[in-house]
Amino acid sequence: MSNKRDYYEVLDVSRNATEAELKKAYRRMAMKFHPDRNTGDVTAEDKFKEAKEAYDVLSDERKRAAYDQFGHAGVDATAAGGFGGAGGFQGGFGDIFDSVFGDIFGSAGVRGRERVYRGADLRYDLELNLEEAVAGSTVKIRVPKLVLCESCEGSGAKKGSSPVSCPTCGGQGQVRMQQGFFSVQQTCPQCRGQGKFINNPCGTCHGQGRVRDNKTISVKVPPGVDNGDRIRLSGEGEAGENKGPPGDLYVNVIVKQHPIFTRDNTDLHCDVPISFTMAALGGELEVPTLDGRVKLKIPSETQSGKLFRLRGKGVKSVRASSKGDLLCRVIVETPVNLDRRQKELLQKFEESMQTGGYNHNPRTSSWLNGVKKFFDSMTN
C-alpha cells in the first residue's frame, strides 16, 4: 500500500477542482515551499516536491482519471504503460484484471454505471462574543459553495433533454483494446468513465450539474462552547458530482477577546483594581459577573495579587455538568497625579510608619534580610 498522501489533500482542493483551481493551488504551495525561499529546510523541500508531483498528476486528464479510479496504484500503472511498456497499454491494474479474469469471476467494476462523487466538506469560522458562547444562540451564516443546479436538477443537460449514451464506449464507460494475446480495457477518454455524454448542456451550469451560490444556513450553537470547538452540520457541504451525496459543513468556533473576563475551561478570571486605602483598611465593592453584579468584601491588609474565588460564577461548558468559578485578582493601584497637599500628607504618613520599624512592612523586612544573607555568602 502506498504511503503517499492524497493528491487533493496535498494541494488543499476538492476532488472536483477545475484546472484553474488546481493551478492556483499549486502556485500557492510552490511559492510557500520553494527551496530558494527555504534554504536548508528539508521539510519545505519535501513539501515542494510533493506538491509538484500532485499537480503533475491532477493537471493531466488521463492521469487524473486513473488516480480518481485506482488511487496511486492507477497512476503508477499508467506511468509504467501497463503490460505494453512505453506507448502501449495505459490503463490501471483494475482494467487488466477485469479484462483477463472478468469472464471467469464476473465483472466487479463500474462499467455501464454512472459514477457519483461525494461533495467536498467545507469549513466556516464563526466568531462569537463570550456571552453568546456561554449562553448559546442560533446564528445565520452565508456560505459560498457548489449547489445542485436547479435548472437541470443536477443532470447537466438542458431542460427537456437528457444525457445520451457515450458514442465512443457505447455507455460502458470503458473501451476495449487488443494487446497481444490479452484483451484489455481502459477508461473511455470521451466520457471519462461515466458512460454518458451531454450533447445539449444546461445553460446555467454549462453541463456541470452544479453551480456556485451563497447559501444562508442557521447554526444552532449549544451553550458553553469554547474557542476551538467544532460544530458539524451534516449534508451542508458542497453538492456531490453527478447527484452524489453532499459533503458536511464544519463550523469552527472563535470566541472573541472579552474586555473584562478571560476564560479558562469553566473558570473565568478578571483583574479588580482597588485603592491603596481600601487595601490597607478593607472595604466592599461591586464586581461584574455574567449573571449580574455581586459584592466582594476586601479584608484589611490585602496585598496586591490576592485571588478571591466566587464559586459558581464561572461558566458551564458543553462537556461539564456544573459551572466553574470566577477568580478575581485584586491589583492595588498606586495613586497618580497627586497635588502638593496630598504629597505632604503621604510624607507625614510615611514618617509615622517608620516609628514602628518593619512591623508595618513584614515583606520588606523579609526581603532585606534575604538580600543581606545573599551578600554575606558572597563575601565569605
Distinctive features:
3-stranded mixed β-sheet, 10 helices, 380 residues, HSP40/DNAj peptide-binding domain, elongated, alpha+beta
CATH topology of the domain at 262-375: HSP40/DNAj peptide-binding domain
Helices and strands: which structural class?
alpha+beta
The main sheet comes to: 4 strands, mixed
Total of DSSP H or I helical runs spanning 4+ residues: 10
Identify the quaternary structure here.
single chain
CATH class of the domain at 262-375: Mainly Beta
Count the E strands.
15
Would you identify the CATH H-level superfamily of the domain at 262-375? Urease metallochaperone UreE, N-terminal domain
- Portion of residues within helices: 25-40%
Unreliable residue stretches: 81-113
Task: Determine the N-to-C terminus distance.
Answer: 71 Å
Concise account of the structure shown:
The protein is an alpha+beta fold. It has ten helices and 15 strands. The strands form six sheets. A four-stranded mixed beta sheet has the order 10-11-15-14. The protein has a three-stranded mixed beta sheet with strand order 1-9-8. The protein has a two-stranded antiparallel ribbon with strand order 2-7.
